[in-house]
Design brief:
The chain has helices at residues 2-18, 38-52, 70-86, 148-168, and strands at 22-29, 58-60, 64-65, 91-99, 115-124, 129-136. The chain is of the alpha/beta class. The longest helix has 21 residues, at 148-168.
């Protein structure tokens, strides 16, 4: 019994030593006003849940709304990165959600059709350098997926790609 317990504790220690932590920063782009859309919250939560369910250490900053002011956006992102570093996170993931809501029947509703695409950037906080980038296009919206479940599915696809990118950079996430 003691050998089994020791092996279990040893395995947990090895996993913990190699696991990386990350902070997710969602940035909402091309939306009118300062309101954070529910779709942005759904994407953020689905990604955090995906990694949390695997026992990973994740954090997030408040969703940022890009104001098409590069200097202001850069300041907001820098602040989020500093908070992640203070929180002892290994990686910082910026996920920009690009919206197209001009023709939307209801832009405040969670609709897959309102999301044009997403761009991801994974940054090593210790090295202060970009480790990976990725672009994502949601599937065509249909009557079956143009809802919360469709947005969650798109977010899960992003999370799986994030996991693959983390693993490709030497992490065990």
């Amino acid at each position: 019994m003691k050998k089994a317990l020791f092996a279990f504790v040893f395995a947990i220690a090895i996993f913990s030593a190699s696991a990386k932590s990350f902070s997710l920063q969602v940035v909402q782009k091309n939306t009118p006003g300062d309101e954070v859309f529910d779709s942005s919250y759904v994407v953020e939560q689905a990604i955090l849940d995906y990694f949390f369910e695997q026992g990973m250490i994740v954090s997030n900053g408040a969703v940022l709304v890009s104001k098409d002011d590069a200097a202001n956006d850069k300041t907001d992102l820098r602040r989020s990165m500093i908070e992640a570093k203070i929180g002892s996170m290994d990686l910082f993931v910026k996920l920009e959600l690009d919206y197209s809501v001009l023709d939307s029947a209801n832009p405040t509703t969670v609709l897959l059709s309102d999301i044009r695409g997403a761009t991801m950037e994974i940054v090593s906080l210790s090295q202060n350098k970009v480790l990976a980038r990725g672009k994502f296009t949601p599937p065509a919206a249909t009557d079956l997926n143009n809802n919360r479940l469709g947005v969650e599915s798109f977010a899960k696809d992003i999370a799986m790609e994030m996991q693959a990118r983390f693993a490709g950079k030497g992490g065990s996430i």
